[in-house]
Design goal:
Subunit structure (chain A): Part of the multisubunit transport protein particle (TRAPP) complex.
Radius of gyration of chain A: 18 Å
Protein name (chain A): Trafficking protein particle complex subunit
Distance between the termini of chain A: 11 Å
Shape of chain A: globular
Number of strands of chain B: 5
Number of helices of chain A: 5
Largest sheet of chain A: 5 strands, antiparallel
Shape of chain B: globular
Strand content of chain A: 5-15%
Pfam family, one (chain A): Sybindin
Helix content of chain B: 25-40%
Order of helices and strands of chain B: EEHEEEHH
Keywords (chain A): Endoplasmic reticulum, ER-Golgi transport, Golgi apparatus, Signal, Transport
Family (chain A): Belongs to the TRAPP small subunits family. BET5 subfamily.
Largest sheet of chain B: 5 strands, antiparallel
Order of helices and strands of chain A: EEHEEEHHHH
Oligomer: heterodimer
Strand content of chain B: 15-25%
């Protein structure tokens, strides 16, 4: 049984030393699962355990909750309901702390925000570890455990691309570089309406109203942000750019290693 | 080609460190301690952030100029082997190093467990073994 699990997080180092993830999309597919029709605009949670569940492709509001015991409520980002995320809570101990849970990371009992912070910490430490050992010219490429492999690519501007795959995939660094050059630069950097000053999760969720918020979301669809929460909350992070999400989804599914 | 060996105890402290070539930077002993502790922590976290249940920690780390293999024993001791990038399978080497370790360190009644290793015989037989891999 060959399972590929992909999680893409793009982490911006500049904003703060914690992981303020800008974009997160999660795709998981099992080779024997045939029910792969994707319903745009809705996202169904499969109630069974991780090993027998399958995830649909990216939808307009693509945040997937893993089917863990905590998230038995309907998917928070279903565009048909107005309910706020079932498990979200905002921690405001300092201005930079991100909300604890608004969806669970696949395969674990920690939330996606926690996982993002841990991943960033691991990446940061390993990057410095590698640089220390071989005099500043080396870059950490990937690491492998018994069950998964994490691939890493850092752009010269400090943007970090991370992808998880199954353990016997070869290095996907070239793929990450392609994603950066062909997709991120094209759809995000060259988009004149994207704003990058403050990528805190709370802003994209509408917890902190900003003046340009409506104007910023003019370029997106289905991710309306309003402080009254009349629409579905947008996906976490601030790359609420549907073209980018869809393009990344299509690109990854077309890879030969993705089955 | 094996560049160096680190042995980390189960608390994360560096117990043994040896370079076998000159390819890697020479760091101060303090920096080696910090690196060992960092890796110990990262190893623990990587099993937590696994997308799949029940993952081990980092077993192999790949960089541009070297590869790092980690073998964790059942008692929590970690053997880190830094090799060249072409080295693909270090399992027999790991096993042999573990054998040498258990012979000259564990069976030494005067060795305090989890403490830095100060054993001439361990150094010598390790060097002899590495020489057979790296070549003269």
């Amino acid at each position: 049984m060959f399972m590929i699990l992909l999680l893409i997080e793009i982490v911006d180092e500049i904003s703060n030393s914690e992981a303020s993830h800008i974009f997160q999309g999660q795709q998981e597919k099992k080779i024997r699962d045939s029910s792969n029709t994707s319903h745009p605009g809705s996202n169904t949670t499969v109630p069974t355990g991780i090993s027998s569940s399958s995830r649909l492709g990216l939808t307009t509001s693509s945040r997937f909750s893993a089917s863990s015991p905590g998230s038995s409520s309907p998917d928070p980002n279903s565009s048909t309901t107005n309910t706020p995320p079932g498990t979200s809570s905002v921690m405001r101990s300092d201005g930079q702390t991100q909300p604890t849970m608004s969806g669970m990371a696949a395969g674990s009992v920690i939330s996606i925000e926690e996982e993002a912070k841990l991943v960033y910490g691991v990446i940061y430490s390993l990057r410095n570890f590698v640089r220390k050992l071989s005099s500043n010219q080396d870059e950490f490429i990937s690491y492998k455990t018994s069950t998964y492999r994490l691939h890493y690519y850092e752009t010269p501007t400090g943007l970090k691309f991370v992808m998880n795959s199954d353990a016997n995939t070869e290095s996907l660094r070239a793929v990450l570089k392609q994603i950066h050059v062909q997709l991120y630069v094209e759809f995000v950097v060259k988009n004149g309406l994207m704003k990058f000053e403050d990528t805190r999760w709370e802003i994209s969720q509408g917890f902190i109203p900003t003046e340009q918020q409506q104007q910023q979301d003019g370029s997106t669809n289905g991710a309306a942000v309003s402080t009254t929460k009349s629409g579905p909350p947008p996906p976490p992070g601030n790359i609420s750019n549907e073209l980018f999400r869809i393009a990344v989804d299509r690109f990854i599914r077309s890879l030969p290693v993705f089955e | 080609m094996i560049y160096s060996l680190y042995i980390v105890n189960k608390a994360g402290g560096l117990v043994y460190q040896k370079d076998f070539t000159n390819n890697l930077e020479k760091l101060s002993s303090n920096e080696y301690l910090v690196l060992a502790g960092t890796f110990h922590g990262v190893h623990a976290i990587t099993s937590k952030i696994s997308p799949v249940h029940n993952s081990s920690g980092v077993e192999m780390l790949e960089a541009d100029n070297f590869k790092l293999y980690c073998f964790q024993t059942l008692t929590g001791t970690k053997f880190l082997l830094i090799t060249s990038t072409q080295q693909n399978n270090v399992d027999p080497y790991m096993k042999k190093i573990y054998d040498i370790y258990s012979d000259f360190v564990m069976k030494n009644p005067f060795h305090t467990p989890e403490m830095p290793i100060r054993s001439e015989q361990f150094d010598q037989s390790l060097l002899k073994f590495i020489k057979t891999i790296n070549g003269p």
